[in-house]
Every structure is written in C-alpha cells, then in structure tokens.
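Chain A, query sequence.
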Amino acid sequence: MLIATDEAGAAVKKPSRPAIGRMLANLQRGNAHLILERVEEDMDGSWYVRVLLCDNNTYQLEFRDGVAAEHYQTRTVSQEKVLTAVLGWASGKTDWKDGFMWNNIGSQFGADDAQHQG
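Chain A, predicted structure.
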C-alpha cells in the first residue's frame, strides 16, 4: 500500500494521481516535503520516494530501495519532472529514474539507521 505524507502532517492512504499532484503543488515553506512510502507486510526495509522543496525553489528528490546503502538523491528545478518521477515510482514503472543524475548518499546513514527499517 502507498501512503503519502507531507510536512504539515496530512497523510493519504492509497493516494490517487491527482492527490499526489496536489500534494506536490502545495509544497511551500512550512510544508516543504512530501514522502510517498510503499508499505507491504512482505517487504523488509524502507521503500520510499521523498521530495523536498528547497529555499532556492529547486527540488531535492530522494529514494530508498529497502536499505540505507540504496539511498539516492538528485536535484532539479522542474516540478513537472518531479511529478512524472514520483508518479512513475508510485505505479511501479522501471524507467521513472531516467532523466536524472543520481548520487548514492547511503554513506550518510549510519548502521543504526539500517536497523530501524520496516
């Protein structure tokens, strides 16, 4: 199941494409991040995509595939590219990461973080 949560605390279970689009469009100071998390009983670890609207009006996009070592980050100025990527991730498309240069930031997370998964 997908759960979308924003910084203001709004949480939507099984969000529709329009709901995800609205949450992304509503990012602003004080409500600057959106997390889409995939929660399944048979999936270990943390599986999510996160969008942060930065002070310079760029978007930081991150995703984690289960473990800290598989945590990546990129930046873009395009809300449209972010929306396309987030919707692609949510629907399980394999090409949703295309069009970005990703940096593995897994080393920024300690061993304790890896044990708090799930």
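The helical segments are 17-25, 79-90, 111-115. The beta strands are 2-6, 11-13, 33-38, 46-53, 59-66, 71-76, 103-104.
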